[in-house]
Structure formats: C-alpha cells, structure tokens
Amino acid sequence: MRGIFTIILLMFSSVALAQSSASGDGVRRGGDIPEVRVYGQRPMKEIGTQQTKFDSLALKENISLSMADVLTFNSSLFVKSYGRATLSTVAFRGTSPSHTQVTWNGMKINNPMLGMTDFSMIPSYFIDDASLLHGTSSVNETGGGLGGAVRLATKPAQADGFGLQYVQGIGSFKTFDEFLRLTYGNEHWQVSLRAVYSSSPNDYKYRNHDKKLNIYDEDMNIVGQYYPIERNRSGAFKDLHILQETYYNTGRGDKFGLQAWYTSSNRELQMLTTDYGSDTDFENRQREHTFRGILSWDHVRSNWKVAANAGYVYTWLAYDYRRDVGNGNMQVMTRSRSKVNTFYGKVDGEYYLGEKWLLTANLSAHQHFVTSADKNIIRQDGNQAIVGYQKGRMELSGSVSAKWRPNDRVGVSAVVREDVYGRNSSPIIPALFVDGVLSERGNVMAKASVSRNYR
Known about the structure:
By secondary structure, the chain is mainly beta. It has three helices and 25 strands. A hairpin with a 4-residue loop joins strand 15 (237-249) and strand 16 (254-268).
C-alpha cells in the first residue's frame, strides 16, 4: 500500500514540476498563427460541366479493389457485378453499358466488339486521377456517351530519388493480392513501375439453399428433404497487371510521357448453384491478354498549348466451354477466339484570348482491326464449322469549343463535335453550357446545359 502511495506522489510531483518549468521565463507554450487566405479560380475548361471527381484517398483507401468497387462505393452509378474477378459494367442514368464511354489518358478503351468496358480488369492501384462526366458533359471528352463518360488517368509519381512500395493482402480461401511499385525521380525524369497479381482457387464449402435433395425410405418413398453441403471449386482466377510509366520534363515547356499497361487474366466462370452436375464435368474458362501503350507530348506556353498523343491496343480474348458427355470424354461446346488491334492518334490545342476567352480544338482517330472466330456448330460429317468475321473500321472524332467568362461569377461554353464511323458520319453534336455563382458566401452555384448526342 505504501508503495502505491509513493508512486502516486511521484507522479503528481513530476506534473507540478513540468508545469512550473513551462511557466518560467523564456519558455512559451504556444503562439498565434496569422491567418492565410487561399484564392482559387474555377478552370474555364470546366464551365457548366457536371462531373464527379474522386479523391485520391478514395482510389488508394483499399488498393485491393478494382475500379468497379471504387465506383460502387463512391458514386451513384449503377455497377452490375457478379462478384470479384467477374464481369463488371457501369451504366449512367438507366442507359446501357455501351452508352458509357471510358477513356484512359485520353484514349478510348471500350471494347470495339461489344462497346463496353469490364471495370473488374482495371485495378484502382493503377489509377491516379478519375472523374465522371455526367450526360451532356461527356461531349467535352468524346462523342457517343449518351449516359456519360468515365475518365481515367495516370500521373507522375513526383518521386525524389529511388522509392519502393510492397503490399501483400491475404484473404479467405487462399486468396492472395500482391502489389509492388518502384519509382525514381529527379528534376527532369519520373519513372514508375507498378505490378499487381491477384489469385484465388475459390475453393470452399457452403450449404446450397438453391438445391433440395430427397430422402427416401426402403420403398423409395420420399420421407424428407434437405439442403446439401457442397464444395465450390469453380470461379478460380489469376490476374496479372504491369504498368510502366516514364515522364520527361525539359523544364522549358515541353513534356513527354510513355505509359505501357499489360494485362494477363485467366478466369473460371462459376457454375450455377442450381446445376446438379459435378464441377469436374465441365470447363467454363475465359482468358485475356491485353496491351495498351500511349506516347504523349505537351508543348505549353503562357497563353496556348499544343498536345499530341499516339497509342496502340492489342487484345486477345479466348472463351472455352467443354462438357463431359460420358466416360470422361470432354466435348467442346464453344471455342471462341478474338483479336483486336487498335491504333490511336490525337491532336488538340488550347488558346487563351485574354482572360475572358478560351478556344479549344481537338481531333482523334481510332483504327480498329477485329478478328473473331467461333467453333460451335457441328456439321453432318461430325466436324466443327468455324463461324466468325474479320472487320476493320476507322473512327474519327473532332470538336471545337469557345468558352467565355465575362466576370468571375458567370461562364458560358459552346461545343460542336462531329463523329465519323467508317463511311458513316453522325449528325452534328452541339452542346451549350452556362454556370453562375448565386452566392459567394454560401458557395451556391447554378448550372444549365443542353445538347444533342449520337451513338
């Protein structure tokens, strides 16, 4: 008891001594910090646009998520997903996924065969800047986005010297996630290498409430039913992503960039819970190899800017469905192979006419070459016929815009876009945007826009 009392007495003595020392001459415990005012001006390029920008924390809060998960948790978009490592598509305002345009560093990455994008194939670890352009606002970026557009981009790491980051995630059912980033930077160069590898056998036991098995007596009469306990062995996946970035800044207004992204995916599509067959009786597999590369050049001066981009996309898709027709003989039901080669180029310019006018113009081209073949028809001679196609199409899109801000409270923007698909051209796509600050103190702003779009 005396020991406890001594410890308490020493603690109070230490606190009193610290207070008396802090209140002595020459020791200040705090000070006033003068206020700092920060002024900002709304970018003229965003006059009247309705967009949702994702904070960097939302993108990096859980690096094991895909962009499908980020959009699900941080936006009002409808994301249709069948679970991890399965097809995930996005739709704006009730439109279909093919009415949502998706760009990566300015290049469209929608599949030219289906017109949509699988967001489960885009790890959030590879995205540094993401925003949504709702409805009419997508005309500023690209045509055909009746619902809107998703804009994704990478940025220099702003590293000083060498840097290394490694993160490993371990989940249930032998699920592993590996994340690696190597960076190097100095006054002129910024180099980054990112890699993501995710895998899972997706092997686990569960009680299947979508099935009922009968219990029979000796006379084969049904005397009861139960939900069976089964083991899931389908839905395994192995996804590998590698992203190489190199940026060079001359320091005199010229910037060069290279982004190269490779994806290799091997996924088993899950069987239905109402399938009474064994998982060893079939194979339902999808594989993909995709490469995306972009070269960029930006020439910036005090009141004008010129930029040029060139890119290439290669995608190899394979889908195989085989079923055991008896005695262990696996019969090929569907064997699909697709190859896509896309060449991309874009030139755009900006010119500030004083402080009240901004004039912009851009022209982009996507040349697609698609080869698709399916072996799924059995002829009378027992051989499989090959059904498919081999097509090519050029897509051109150009726009000009004028943005006017007579004062700090009002802005007007007019955009005219024209799209060409093969030998067909779309009607003129016009858009008009107006915004105004109603109350600076309350930060109240009104926006209005009207446009016609074409898909």
